[in-house]
Structures are given as structure tokens and as C-alpha cells.
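#struct-pred
JK: can someone run the complex with iron/sulfur cluster? inputs below
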Amino acid sequence: MDSFFGLSYNMNLYRGCEHACIYCDSRSSCYQMDHLSKIYIKENALELLDKELAGKRNRGTVGFGSMNDPYMPVENDQKHTRQALELLARYNYPVHIMTKSDLVLRDLDILKQLSKNYCAVTVTITTADDELANKLEPNAPSSSTRFEVLATLRNAGVYSGITMMPILPFINDTVPNVMEMVDKAKAADVQYILPYFGVTLRDGSREYFYKMLDKHFPGIKEKYIQEFGGSYGCNSPRANALYTIFHERCKLHRIDTRMKTFQPKKDIQLGLF
Ligand code: SF4
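RT: done, C-alpha cells with the ligand placed:
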């Protein structure tokens, strides 16, 4: 089980992602996607899911949103995420959804139903600044919209928080940005924030990211090359200071910095002896 997000299974009903975030790891060559924005719909995914769920004994948490956003625009018409959630609710599976989209609110009825067992919705927000977010995540809803989504989820009683990642070195790794995001999270009644003050880059994702740095942030690519070379993990040079400020601010606002994961009820076993 993934101890950070509490996932036993990962579900990708689509291949590719329309949100086009400039730092997206799904562009990495190891995933062999010809183009991130080319969306493939896995037509028989729901049929397969139904069969899988019927045969499984371990009701571990099913995660949505690792390789693409389950609520990208194509989901508006396709409704595959919604149908998968309906199936998971029917089989009483715990669910953890990661998204940047307000489309998740369309499924509030099912999220509330899933919450009787376990349902977490984690919204990724990397900056409090809508203009900057538009450069980093051009096709995703604005950061302001995402904070509103969180407030609505919380009002409905859904367990929800933020993945504050990636925080890009030399771009959004600033004290005011981190403070403002934690304060806005508090205003939205967010229950947890999971941070990473850095970004991961691999062959394929690095080239695209550098191209976008040249377009939107001239001179920053050179800083990355000098500081990180070809490293996978590119931690902010300010990471230590940011973690300290982040934890202090979260403590002040009583926001958890880890999420509560699904804990299966222990079987009551009869002792043989
Ligand atoms: S929403 Fe996630 S999967 Fe989609 S482009 Fe952005 S980082 Fe990649």
C-alpha cells in the first residue's frame, strides 16, 4: 500500500491529459505517450472494473488521478469517472480522488455516499496566483476555483485536502506563496495539505518543461541546468525554510500535514485454541 496517499490500487480510465501542466511527469519517455494531450478512452474499462471488483477480497483504497486528471474536460461527456465511482460505491470500496477540476462537484452525490465508508478528495494547488497558475497549468481551472471547490466539498462533509506540489524552484517557491496558500486552505476549511517543495523531472518531461520555461520565464532554464543538471529530484534551494514556515502555519490553523488513510475494520477471528 502507498503510505503517503493510502492507495492499494490506481485507476486510469483515460490515457493522456487535457490540462497540459508544464511540469507533468506523464510526459516522461518511460510512459511512451506520443502526445500528452492526445486522449485515449479505455472503452471497456468499466466492464473490466466490474469484473475485477466482484472478484476481489481486499477492499483497499482505489486511487484516481495518478497519470491524468479524472475530471479533465472529456469526462464531461464520457462520464467514465462517474460510472466507476458508482461501481465502487456499489461494492463499498474506499476511494481517493486527486484532481484540479471543479467538475468533481458534479459527482457530489456519489462522493457523499462513498464518504459513509471512506472518500478523500485531494485538489492540487501550486500557487495562490491565478495568473501564474495559468502559465503552469494552462487548461486547468484557476487556483481560485480550486479553493472554491474545496470549500464546497467541505460544506458537503467530504474529507478533502490539498497536494501542494510541485512547488517549482525559482518560480513559486516563495514564502508569501506558501503562506497565502495555507491561509486560503484554512478559509476553505481544508483538512490536510501534503507539500513537496520541488519538482521531479525525467527524460521527456524535462525537455518540455525547459521549452515552457524559455517561453514564460526567460533565464530560469539556465538556473535549473546549473543547479540540478539531469537530476530526477529538483528540490527548491529554499526547501528547508519553506517546510519550517509551512508546518508552523499549518499548526497555527490546525491543518494536518498528513492525510488520514482508510483503515479496514479488523476481522473478528475466532481463536482455535
Ligand atoms: S492534471 Fe496532472 S496529469 Fe494532467 S497534465 Fe496536469 S500534472 Fe499532468
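RT: quick notes.
The beta strands are 9-11, 14-15, 40-41, 62-64, 95-99, 119-124, 159-164, 192-195, 198-200, 233-235.
The first helix runs from residue 45 to 55.
JK: thanks, will look after standup
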